[in-house]
User: Fold FAD binding domain-containing protein from Streptomyces montanisoli.
Amino acid sequence: MTTHAPHTAQSVTLPASLDEAVAALAAMPAAVPVAGGTDLMASVNKGLLRPAALVGLGRMSELRGWHYQDGHALLGAGLTHARMGRPDFAALIPALAASARAAGPPQIRNAGTLGGNIATAAPTGDTLPVLAALEATLVVAGPGGARREIPVTHLLAGREMLAPAELIGFVRVPLLHAPQVYLKATARTGPGRATTSVAVVLDPARRGVRCAVGAVAPMPLRPLEAERWIASLIDWDGARGLTQEALAAFGEYVAAACVPDPLPPADGGEAPQPSPAVLHLRRTVATLARRALGRALS
Ligand SMILES: Cc1cc2nc3c(=O)[nH]c(=O)nc-3n(C[C@H](O)[C@H](O)[C@H](O)COP(=O)(O)OP(=O)(O)OC[C@H]3O[C@@H](n4cnc5c(N)ncnc54)[C@H](O)[C@@H]3O)c2cc1C
Assistant:
């Protein structure tokens, strides 16, 4: 790990286990955890952050892989985007693999981790809409070996926070054994941050379609009514196909839910027309949602 920051941390601790890392953070309240450093060191280099001490999470082998439990995969927070992009992981959770492959250039994917992506909680975070659509939960480690579980979306929405010295240990993801798709629009060709992203996940056991839209709001949005409506049109015991009209209507439904019209003024006047930027965003969301569902069903 290198930095050009003028003020570097006074101490760097490299624990070998999750509980040791939590203990190190509890012992040094001013210390900050660092995984791949791609977000954190960018803030340090910009002078936005001057951590007095760092607790490096890179040596914790238990967080770099995954294991299975009750029909779920427990993904270590230290899984890199590069690792999640590989074929064996893609066979397990295809949309998460696709989002990891879409996250930045190769240097970033080699270092950046799942836990860092979640903890940073940037609206453009590529894994976040996928985790929202999968209804994933976080296994949070705290002092004294404590573990608690919270939905990823609660952390992203600020409904629940990480307490001091707590770390994201694992991400619990259901194994649905069904098609899932992640699509991303960027403002330029080549790697770039999402201007819009859409994850669509089929859940045949519950006869459900789950969709989440990223980058258009501070956290991923779930268009629940659109999900229920389109799921009711699918012949789950048959070919599972939908007409082009139904796919297009799903796209419009998702876009209207996630990029709403401007509100009327408080004094009761007429609502302003949506700006060209809003109309463009809505078109992009509609297109991605239509394509993602079409691919999932094809
Ligand atoms: C040039 C560039 C391009 C990028 N492009 C993309 C992109 O296209 N898509 C995208 O999604 N992201 C992108 N990123 C952002 C970044 O790479 C990802 O968010 C990455 O997943 C962060 O992981 P990390 O391990 O590097 O986190 P770090 O930088 O190590 O940590 C980030 C934050 O998370 C905290 N943290 C880390 N691990 C844990 C944990 N286990 N528990 C609790 N807190 C933790 C740290 O304290 C810190 O506050 C880009 C970054 C750069 C610099």
